[in-house]
Design goal:
Elements lengths: L1 H60 L2 H10 L6 H52 L4 H43 L1 H10 L2 H9 L3 H24 L1 H6 L3 H52 L11 H45 L6 E3 L2 E7 L6 E7 L15 H8 L7 E3 L8
Parallel strand pairs: 1-4
Antiparallel strand pairs: 2-3
Length: 417
């Protein structure tokens, strides 16, 4: 039995992985378009930073009044093109980010509709047999939280993971041209951030799974006790049930705090290494400008200012990935829950179908319901009587094609409850 449970758990994990992978493949092309917009906006921001650094350097080296007045009243100034580049790059960056945001919202709505359609298909196939396997609070949590967690993972997290690779490569290419020594510093410091992020996030899936289970249990228990409040009053069990609710609430609070602790730890580590790397670069730029350090090429003020403005953008993308890293664990838990629902509602390829009910060795999948010979004549009325829990409802659900069984009739069947 233990081996069977481990096998079933392994099958669910494989099914959850395949479900996430299939959803990622559906949105991959659209997500690459969003990535192109985001990368273009990043390049525009780098261009704006370069133009801004150039203008600030010239402001410090010339008369401020003549610079500003010449821009507005003279058409032949050599600063005008830099100001135009600065404004144009910022406007273009804003437009590209707006396009990327709208496209991402449309992609998320499409993914959510697709997952909801799969869930509704499972409801249509399993009907009462599927719904009664869990509490209504479980289904509410599945539709309002789990589906959204999967959508955020396949859209926001996947996009940010690509951006965390593309933007450092773009910036490293520019910085390698400006100063190779800063390029080496970033080449050493950048991998440290995702490395610690992965190490800390290893146990996040288990924490999220524990949190969702505790949340579902508390909600189901509260709804159950609320619907049976009269029976609780009759037996004077108010204090006992209140204590059980408090225990479930404390369990949920403990699970929530553990998830938050990991999130805060992850953010603290990211901030520490990002700040340390930026401080190292800032010290190098400062001492290089003062000619106290001769490592690397000599920096001018515009280059140093550009480095100090542009480098934090890379670490901000990595920190954003760290903030979204918990979505991966939440999506894995959500995919496992959804995959179990979709898997239980799928028809098995080994089902023996026939128009009449004259079956040998009939059994209902994953239950103890079994019949050596099941035979029902056309027009026959049968009274089925058995103790509670003997499997009467399971048998009817299997006969009405709501639950997987070894045999299935090809005729139309209705289960009236």
């Amino acid at each position: 039995m233990i081996k069977q449970n481990h096998a079933a758990t392994g099958d669910m994990e494989v099914a959850a992985t395949e479900l996430l992978h299939s959803q990622q493949q559906k949105v991959k092309n659209a997500l690459l378009g969003v990535l192109a917009f985001k990368s273009g906006a990043f390049l525009c921001q780098l261009t704006a930073f370069a133009a801004f650094s150039f203008l600030v350097a010239r402001l410090l080296a010339s008369d401020v009044n003549s610079l500003v007045m010449s821009h507005f009243f003279s058409a032949n100034t050599h600063y005008e093109w830099t100001l135009n580049v600065l404004v144009g790059a910022l406007v273009l960056s804003l437009i590209l980010n707006l396009f990327a945001h709208n496209r991402l919202m449309a992609l998320q709505a499409s993914s959510l509709s697709d997952l909801e359609a799969q869930l509704h298909g499972a409801f249509k196939q399993g009907q009462h047999a599927l719904v009664r396997q869990h509490s209504h609070f479980y289904w509410q949590q599945l539709s309002t939280e789990h589906l959204h967690a999967m959508v955020k993972f396949i859209s926001e997290f996947q996009l940010q993971k690509w951006l965390a690779v593309v933007t450092p490569l773009l910036l490293l290419g520019v910085i390698a041209y400006v100063n190779w020594f800063v390029f080496i510093i970033l080449l050493v410091c950048l991998p440290v951030v995702p490395l610690f992020m992965i190490i800390i996030g290893k146990g996040t899936k288990h924490l999220h799974n524990t949190y969702f289970v505790a949340f579902e249990r508390l909600g189901s228990m509260f709804a159950n006790r609320l619907s049976n409040i009269e029976l609780i009053n009759v037996f004077s069990a108010n204090r006992q049930q209140t204590q059980r609710l408090e225990q479930s609430s404390n369990t949920l609070n403990s699970s929530t705090m553990k998830v938050l602790q990991v999130a805060f730890l992850n953010q603290t580590v990211l901030d520490f290494f990002s700040t340390l790397s930026m401080a190292l670069i800032a010290v190098y730029v400062g001492f290089n400008l003062l000619e106290e350090i001769n490592l690397g090429p000599k920096l001018v003020f515009a280059d140093g200012l550009f480095l100090l403005i542009a480098v934090p953008m890379v670490f901000s993308e990595l920190k954003q990935l760290g903030n979204l890293y918990h979505q991966k664990a939440a999506a894995q838990v959500a995919a496992s829950e959804l995959a179990s629902v979709l898997f239980s509602s799928q028809k098995s390829a080994d089902v023996l179908q026939s128009p009449s009910i004259d079956w040998h060795d009939f059994r209902v999948v994953n239950t103890a319901v079994f019949a050596k010979h099941l035979f029902v004549e056309n027009g026959q009325h049968i009274w089925l009587s058995a103790p509670s829990g003997a499997g009467k409802t399971l048998l009817f659900e299997a006969l009405s094609k709501q639950r997987q069984a070894s045999h299935q009739t090809t005729q139309k069947v209705a289960l009236l409850t």
